Amino acid sequence: MAKEYKFPEGFWWGSATSATQIEGAASEDGKGMNVWDYWYKQVPNRFFNGVGPDVTSDFYHRYKDDIKLMKEIGHNSFRFSISWSRLIPGGVGEVNKKAVDFYNDVINELLENGIMPIATLFHFDMPIEMQHIGGFESRQVLENYKNYAKTCFELFGDRVKRWITFNEPIVPAEGGYLYNFHYPDIVDFKKAIQVCFNTVLASAMAINEFKKLEIKDSKIGIVLNLTPSYPRSNHPADLKAAEIADLLFNRSFLDPCVKGEYPEKLVELLKSYNHLPVYTEDDLELIKNNTVDYLGVNYYQPRRVKAKENMPNPYGVFTPDWFFDEYVMPGRRMNPYRGWEIYEKGIYDILINVRDNYGNIESYISENGMGVEGEERFIKDGIIQDDYRIEFIKGHLKWLHKAIEEGCNVKGYHLWSFMDNWSFLNAYKNRYGLVSVDITTQKRTIKKSGYWFKELARNNGFSE
Ligand code: BGP
């Protein structure tokens, strides 16, 4: 007997994108440079096949047709990001009228097509002028971000009823200050921690401005990439390793953003290594009073850890890797193109944790997806037959369904992504879309998964 997986009425079916990854027109109509435009100019060889963010999927010029396609494949909701450097070139000062027109058009077009817009204020794309004065290390940049956020609420808040302050705020901190995959590409744990703290504070500052405006029927949240930390074994040393990974990579944002407070154990740990960030009592008060209304959960892969095999090099660089080693579990299933493990149950474990330890705050899956290289080889009858993607989505939806049955307060599921788009550093190596994009002609073609997604949304579930 086939089992039915029906989702709650009004469930959000859709996808997520970000400005830098789809818009293109990187220097058109007055847009300023962001860190990606700048970094690409400095070191194009760091980007897969030397492809930069200047054109990407040309959404800036094709949004009308793209939104029609979204509707065609069953979207009732869609997350995009506003580009700070397009709206306010340089990060501070005059608003760019052309950018206002563009985002107004996108929002209106979505609404006319029955698609709820969810707008992200920051998706890895710091205006370069702001990075040059310290990025999120700088208090001045926090102020400027706050003003940019307020401008967005004032310009678009009459129609955008769902806001996201940051997408995966830990990623620019890890990538830019520890692991060499974002600009400014330095290695400094102390700075990374300061950037993390300041981003939490910036999010609270934006929420505070949002609340002052008292916009009706409107909510503001944050999107976090939650990676459950699974220990190799129940040995206390492995458990400890997993606990520290969880504190550093999940609870460092989840706790202050949802509960308004940092976990004591994290504070103790950082203190004992003399790595506490600089903050004031007022900062903590602001964070406490401005928690999120809802939570977006991005889930791609779990983190498996074990106790360290060897002592860290005492002359080496202090990084989170002092506390745990990666555990390569035998038999784990991999997406070899991205190098990420596929473990569907992770989505359930995250949501149960949110239910039990975070007041069952309203949430939705804001990203989940599978990037695959060389998808042309799966073309049959002119369409990419991406059955692996359909299986990937189904596998996760089954666990999501179970979580909802068990009382998790989840409102929707968004795939990464609507169409193939430009990845940070990986450029167009791995393709994520329900719709393929030929990057030389910009032609869009719905993949098999796109047609499947349409049915999924139409039936508000699937059976198997
Ligand atoms: C998430 C980001 C997205 C997207 C996705 C896929 O972490 O929010 O911006 O890029 O990952 O990752 P990638 O593009 O690096 O393969």
TrEMBL record:
Gene Ontology molecular function terms on file: 6-phospho-beta-glucosidase activity
Domain of life (superkingdom): Bacteria
Keywords from the UniProt entry: Glycosidase, Hydrolase
Catalytic site: 367 (nucleophile)
EC number, as in UniProt: 3.2.1.86
InterPro entries in the record: GH, Glyco_hydro_1, Glyco_hydro_1_AS
Protein name: 6-phospho-beta-glucosidase
EC class name: hydrolase
PANTHER family: 6-PHOSPHO-BETA-GLUCOSIDASE GMUD, GLYCOSYL HYDROLASE
GO cellular component, one term: cytosol
Pfam family, one: Glyco_hydro_1
UniProt organism field: Thermoanaerobacterium thermosaccharolyticum (strain ATCC 7956 / DSM 571 / NCIMB 9385 / NCA 3814 / NCTC 13789 / WDCM 00135 / 2032) (Clostridium thermosaccharolyticum)
